[in-house]
Specification:
This protein is mainly beta. The chain has one helix and 24 strands. The protein has one domain: TolB, C-terminal domain (Neuraminidase, 6 Propeller). A hairpin with a 5-residue loop joins β18 and β19.
């Protein structure tokens, strides 16, 4: 079985939202707490950083070029250098208490972004969607920390996780991609890790980063863990597929809230890893504007 490998010599604060660009042969990701989007070109090793004025919870590449970016105050369109070219909407949560977190695109090229409820006193976060015509909608509530967004290849299911509540949900989608009533897909017991960011492979298996679990897991459509890979860090945050054959899994990790002793003991916390897998993953589509 393949072992996770370091992508390159880098450690961030809270890397998230890895996104593969096949056209560029590059991996993008955000460091939420450093207000950055990163780009790493695999062939040359060139590493670029785009600085923003607020936390970048998640983003997607746009078909027209540049990014759609969910920052604390709202969702914005930018060019490829990060220059804001338009505002989509305000943060539908209270931006003082909830920043954007996980997100991505569905099979129609619409952008989803969920929030993380900072106070933690109740499930005050939500999941919103930006349609192709830039209309925003809040589509789910009752979330503590939105994560784990992924879509089945046939477009019939949306998967999400709520990390602090240690649960993965799935939601049926109609022919137009509109959500029905979500249901519990899998719960994790204390000590097993908490499901964070995720991706779907071409066989319909859901790959999740298990925050506080030292590993990533592949979960069958029936909700059974069928494969696990240990990491030399406690908190992986998200996975995505990429590479020429879409059989490379990219894994982000974090060192958020770790003291000096833990960082010294687990110095690769915040690094990015790769893992060769046997089943190709689903491509992340770009945001498609009308």
């Amino acid at each position: 079985m393949a072992e996770p490998q370091l992508l390159f010599d880098y450690t961030g604060h809270l890397p998230e939202c890895p996104t593969w660009s096949a056209e560029e042969g590059s991996l993008y990701w955000t460091d939420i707490l450093e207000n950055e989007i990163h780009r790493y070109h695999l062939a040359s090793g060139k590493h670029d950083v785009i600085q923003f004025s607020e936390e970048v919870g998640c983003f997607a590449l746009r078909e027209s070029g540049g990014f759609i970016v969910a920052m604390r105050s709202g969702i914005w369109l930018t060019n490829k250098t990060g220059l804001i070219v338009g505002k989509v909407c305000d943060n539908p949560s209270n931006p003082d208490l909830a920043r954007f977190n996980d997100g991505g695109t569905d099979r129609q090229g619409r952008f989803y972004a969920g929030t993380f409820w900072g106070p933690g006193d109740y499930n005050g976060a939500l999941l919103c969607r930006v349609d192709n015509d830039l209309t925003p909608h809040v589509i789910q509530h009752d979330i503590h920390g939105a994560n784990g967004l992924a879509f089945s290849a046939d477009g019939k299911w949306m998967y999400t996780s709520d990390t602090p509540n240690a649960v993965i949900y799935r939601t049926p989608l109609d022919a137009h991609g509109e959500p029905g009533i979500r249901e519990v897909f899998k719960r994790f017991a204390q000590g097993e890790g908490m499901p964070d960011g995720a991706a779907m492979d071409s066989e319909g298996h859901y790959w999740t980063a298990l925050f506080d679990g030292y590993r990533i897991a592949r979960i069958s459509p029936q909700g059974e863990i069928v494969e696990e890979h240990r990491l030399p860090v406690r908190c992986p945050t998200m996975v995505c597929f990429g590479g020429d054959d879409m059989k490379t899994l990219f894994i982000t990790t974090t060192r958020e809230n770790m003291d000096d002793e833990e960082v010294a003991r687990l110095p690769l916390s915040g690094a990015l890893f790769t893992l060769r897998v046997e089943v190709a993953g689903m491509e992340k589509l770009k945001f498609r504007e009308m």
